[in-house]
Amino acid sequence: MCKHSSRNILRNLYGNRIALTIIFLSWMYASSLAGENTRAASKTPKLLPARQLFDTSCAACHGLDGRGGERAPDIATRKEVVRLSDTELIHILQAGVPGTGMPGFSSLGTTKLRELARYVRLLQGAQAQISVAGNPQSGRNLFFGAASCSQCHMIKGEGGFIGSDLTNYAQTHPANDIRQIITHPDQFLGPRARITTVKTGDGKQFEGIIRNEDNFSLQLLSVDGTFHFFQKSEVESAEQQLKSLMPLDYSSRLTGQQLNDVISYLISLGQPSSSGTQKPVQDRQRSNKH
Fold it and tell me: C-alpha distances in angstroms, 153 versus 77, 122, 147, 245?
């Protein structure tokens, strides 16, 4: 994403007044999560100076929990902000967003801006850093090679598209969650991630993911990337199965080290590239653990 598009995102957020009617229980849940993240941030000694910076420079508009208010948008949960890379986030903190009430804080200097960006990540739920002892390059080779992840998933425009785009996935999912999804995919099935078997009146059978459906038609995307269009009148049955398109044998097919390599590769996509010897990749792990 270019710098201008990053600015446009926040300009639109500032420009639009947010009017949401929230169900009471949903509000309570969100408030609880916000409280946990704010408390976690204040209890992290290394981030105390950054918290104080946020409190004095940002909280008046964005709120102590980063969830916004009348003067500024939500920077803790809005997907447009969460998906920004660290470099883009730091640039916005440094230069501000022209045409909005968001000033630049270049006077803070690079070190303090990085600490402030890290605190924002903390509020977003990307919490305390832990090491994942994996090799990102080996993980990339597995992703696009032996593990066959790229047959379904895309990274930066490369790979398949029947599965979700994983370019920014690790920025909002900690390593333990990613590991569980890889090794137990059937336990994390959303309604649109389930395999659907479509049988037509002429006896043909198709399997894939439903992409679009209305009262008259159905669109199915099969594993090979082919789109199949059906009129409801020609469909004899369409049954969703409680299984994932992902292989169920990754826990035995990949070693523990190989899993770490793949996870490290996904995490590295949201971090600045560096040359030299590969080091353990830092995972932004949630701090609200018990």
Answer: 24, 27, 11, 11
